[in-house]
Predict the 3D structure of the following.
Amino acid sequence: MFHRAEVLWLACSICNIRKEKRFCLAVHGRICAQCCGEQREVTLDCPPQCPYLQQARVHEKPRDFGDSVPEEMFPKIVVREEFLEQHEPLITGLLHGLGKVARANSHLRDRDLIGALTAMVRSQQTLSSSGLVYEEKLPNPVQQSVIDSLRKLLEEFRQVEQRHLGYTHLKDRDVLLALVFLVRLAHMRTSGRPLSRAFIDFLGERFAAMQTAIEGAAEPNSRLIIP
């Protein structure tokens, strides 16, 4: 028979009921497979290098909302395929910028990026419809830092256009549609769990090795693939 101490040593560090099966980097202890699956990115702040998280990512598919697109994805705003084709350098540059911000701050989560992008869309809606500049200062400093970084990137984009074309082609409406596309992509690529970094990991995989797309924005034949 096992002594009580031996039974506790074999038990999951979270539930203390089921037998431990794997080492969890989030709790620095051994846990059962069920707790790993149920608490991953919910109560467990899983680091990107966790092999079980990486394995789960392989099997995760982009979320499909079908015809029930939630309000937070701005379903009334139409983003056409031709817009995405015409503005690929802008969109890819923004995605690259988001990935860069995320790599610089390990505490960022998908919900921070989504919150920042959502606030930018609302501000841009006001600007596009009325011409009024309305920048909502968020109480969350992490989200505000994301917004500041993206606004700086947009200004750099306009400067590059001015340098290459002699004028600024980017319109406020174009920025709005690009941001709406980013919001929708983020909602599709996140797992929806409170501590999810699935969208951030997606950005790292697709855009980490890229040179900034901003410098190539006005170059002819600058064709970039948007996932």
Notes: Residues 69-227 form one domain. The longest strand covers residues 22-24. The mean pLDDT is 85. Strands lie at 22-24, 29-31.
